[in-house]
Design a protein that fits this description.
Blueprint: E1 7-13, E2 20-25, H1 30-40, E3 49-53, E4 74-79, H2 81-91, H3 97-110, H4 114-122, H5 125-167, H6 178-190, H7 195-211, H8 213-222, H9 225-232, H10 237-253, H11 256-264, H12 271-286, H13 289-292, H14 301-315, H15 325-341, H16 361-373, H17 375-386, H18 396-410, H19 434-453, H20 460-475, H21 482-490, H22 494-510, H23 514-541, E5 543-548, E6 553-562, E7 568-574, E8 589-592, E9 596-601, H24 606-610, H25 612-616, H26 618-621, E10 624-629, E11 633-638, H27 642-655, H28 663-680
Parallel strand pairs: 1-4
Antiparallel strand pairs: 1-2, 3-4, 5-6, 6-7, 7-8, 9-10, 10-11
Helix pairs in contact: 2-4, 3-5, 4-5, 5-6, 5-7, 6-7, 6-8, 7-8, 7-10, 9-10, 14-16, 16-17, 16-18, 16-19, 18-19, 19-20, 19-21, 23-27, 23-28
Length: 710
């Protein structure tokens, strides 16, 4: 006969004794069960004992969670939460460093349990920990050189215990002093070498910002985005994640006007800030890489449940039929029909659609987000397409998978940030789920474009190309919000894309006729001279270059400029990035242009051959150039961006009497030639230009009409 449902069989351990096998009657009070266990081992004062799980969690058994005990569970008899809290409260105040360290280690472990946490907090334990942090910093700084591991671990365990205790939500975050906030902020800005301390400090700052408006203001005064950014450039991914979380928390809690000033007001953002925002954007999107490269496991029920949820939301399935053999087949047939309506390629087992990486499980995540957060739009798209003819339906499943792959490609998910790029998109900083929201906007655009093109299943790739063009054209305008991005897309309908393509094509064709080509040849030299003068003028103004090494960006600068008479290059180191031009007399070194032997670029540069890590970085390689002079002299550059690279290589080649071959010169030449030709042809508007010159007329029969001036 099976045991009653209220009775569970467990094993109970006690240090130094053989485990006991016993049956626990869940109807009996927990205190009575503990007394029975204590009596079995002849232990008195049973109220000082408790039961806890013997696994790694060590969670206490309480009246609230006792129903979670299953048959075969291993429990441990231990001191009660109140006793343990009291003992640890005393031990962490010990004068012995070793005893204190061991106590804080135990406290960090026990604090994960809410029952213990409640007892420790009742003893004013949070205040004790904050006092230890506030008063212990000076001592930590003095003794860290002598006993760095001991004090580092001590502070790490203290902060870990604090984080675990606060995560239970028992104590309000508003109770902490400015002194405590200053200490935590100092660990982020001054002690970055200790990973554990840095990680806990970042977690505390994030919680402070998110849970209290007053603390947000205090934290914002103590820590800046600039102090957080260096932690993004390390190799520890966990630290990068915590840092991004703090930055995002600061952005989310910032008043609208302040957030707009930091992120959206692009004129106020200097190159360095733009670069750091670009790095933050890349690293944030790179957090999606794991999901993007994770294949769906068709046997994983939790993953399959997501697909079931997509079906349920779309079709609001009524109660399932009974599990009779006939109804099983009926249900399978219904599922297959619904999966076809959802636009999956594999109607029988749609999980197989997500086995390609990229986009892997990221596509399914996006689909579920869209279905839950924009349910009306999701249902409309699915039902709208399921009511069309098969060949005219826009398959939601297939479209979502291909669109996610496209968006990952556009945003370069998984690629490392460039050392010099500053191309960030302000709109991605206005929402904590910006990629998912980006997808929601684009999947609706795809469905709209499909209808405008009256596409069939054979046109799928054509539609995706048009959608990509729409997205890219909208992104180039740098919209400051997702709503603005959506508005830009509204103006880029399929008809508008066709107009833009036609206009660009006609513009190219107009300039290919023979008379226009002859006119181009005639005016090209003066346009090239104009470009040359512009390049030399820019060299006279000068540029600030950043000194880079193979590991990370360094805040060291140097400046180089050409003398007004174009005969000498002046250069020298700077303490900080300059505002405006740097005068010649403040630059210590100079190089006569006459001494320059050659200008080399890319992998031919000496500094690219010396530094292997830089050589492997394609972005840096494309911005590198060097001036070679004398026998072994060299002046090595890494331009701040592609534009400056083109300006300097063109200008130096012009000084040496060589052709300007950069992409910028080609673009400028095309633009200026086009403008000049259009200006010269204004009077010929709406007059067709012949492809060939008019024929030379026959000679006249006599020349009597000629008047001789002599």
């Amino acid at each position: 006969m099976p045991p009653p449902a209220d009775v569970v069989k467990v094993a109970i351990e006690w240090p130094g004794a053989f485990p006991k096998l016993m049956e626990i009657d869940q109807k009996k009070p927990l205190s009575a069960i503990i007394k029975e266990v204590c009596d079995g081992w002849s232990l008195t004062n049973h109220e000082y004992y408790a039961l806890q799980h013997a696994d790694s969690s060590n969670f206490y058994i309480t009246e609230k969670n006792r129903n979670e005990i299953k048959n075969g569970t291993i429990l441990r008899l231990t001191t009660s939460p109140a006793q343990t809290a009291l003992q640890l409260h005393e031990r962490i105040q010990s004068s012995s460093m070793d005893a204190k360290l061991e106590a804080l280690k135990d406290l960090a472990s026990y604090s994960r349990d809410i029952t213990f946490a409640q007892e420790f907090i009742n003893l004013d334990g949070i205040s004790l920990l904050t006092q230890m942090v506030e008063s212990g910093t000076e001592r930590y700084q003095k003794l860290q050189k002598i006993m760095k591991p001991c004090f580092g671990d001590m502070l790490s365990f203290t902060l870990t215990a604090f984080v675990e205790l606060m995560d239970h939500g028992i104590v309000s975050w508003d109770t902490f002093s400015v002194a405590f906030i200053k200490k935590i902020a100092s660990y982020v800005s001054k002690f970055p070498s200790d990973i554990a301390i840095l990680q806990r400090s970042l977690a505390i700052l994030e919680s402070m910002v998110l849970n209290s408006h007053d603390l947000y203001q205090k934290v914002a005064q103590e820590i800046t985005i600039g102090q957080l950014i260096p932690h993004l450039q390390g190799s520890d991914q966990e630290i990068q994640t915590y840092t991004i979380a703090v930055i995002n928390a600061l952005f989310l809690k910032a008043p609208d006007e302040r957030r707009q000033h930091v992120i959206r007001a692009q004129r106020a953002i200097n190159n360095e800030m733009a670069h750091q925002l670009y790095v933050l954007q890349v690293l944030t999107f790179n957090l999606l890489e794991d999901r993007m490269m994770t294949k769906m496991d068709p046997q994983d029920q939790a993953q399959r449940d997501i697909i079931f949820e997509l079906r349920r939301i779309a079709f609001d399935a009524e109660s399932e039929p009974n599990n009779s053999s006939g109804n099983v087949e009926k249900r399978k047939s219904m599922y297959t029909r619904d999966y076809k309506k959802l636009g999956f390629i594999n109607h029988v087992n749609p999980a197989m659609d997500f086995t390609q990486t990229p986009p892997g499980m990221l596509a399914l995540d996006n689909m579920l987000y869209f279905a839950k957060h924009q349910q009306d739009a999701y249902i409309r798209i699915v039902l709208e397409n399921s009511s069309r003819e098969d060949k005219h339906e826009c398959p939601f499943g297939r479209s979502s998978i291909e669109l996610t792959k496209m968006l990952c490609d556009i945003l370069k998910v998984g690629e490392l940030p460039s050392e010099t790029c500053n191309d960030f998109h302000p709109m991605f900083f206005t929402h904590d789920r910006s990629f998912e929201e980006f997808f929601c906007i684009c999947i609706q655009l795809l469905n709209k474009t499909w209808k405008e093109m009256r596409a069939t299943s054979e046109d799928f790739n054509k539609v995706m190309q048009v959608v990509k063009e729409q997205i890219m054209r909208a992104l180039t305008t740098k919209p400051s919000s997702l709503d603005q991005f959506k508005s830009k897309l509204q103006n880029l309908s399929y008809a508008e894309i066709l107009k833009l393509r036609q206009s660009e094509r006609m513009s190219q064709e107009d300039f290919q006729s023979r008379p226009i080509l002859e006119l181009k040849e005639k005016i090209q030299p003066e346009i090239l001279e104009l470009i040359k003068q512009q390049r030399l003028n820019r060299l006279v103004e000068g540029t600030c270059f950043r000194k880079l090494n193979s590991r990370r960006r360094q805040d060291k600068f140097w400046y180089c400029r050409l003398s007004p008479n174009h005969k000498v290059l002046h250069y020298g180191d700077l303490e900080e990035s300059p505002q405006g031009e740097v005068p010649h007399d403040s630059l210590q070194d100079k190089l006569p242009v006459a001494d320059i032997k050659a200008v080399v670029t890319g992998k031919d540069c000496p500094h690219m051959k010396e530094k292997g890590a830089l050589k492997q970085n394609k972005e840096v390689l494309e911005l590198a150039f060097s001036i070679l002079y004398d026998s072994n002299g060299q002046l090595n550059f890494i331009a701040p961006d592609k534009h400056e690279y083109c300006v300097w290589t063109d200008g130096l080649n012009a000084l040496l009497g060589k052709d300007m071959m950069s992409e910028l010169t080609r673009n400028d030449l095309d633009t200026l030639l086009s403008m000049e030709i259009k200006l010269r042809l204004l009077d010929l508007e709406n007059i067709q230009i012949p492809d060939a010159p008019p024929p030379i007329p026959k000679e006249p029969s006599n020349y009597d009409f000629v008047y001789d001036c002599n």
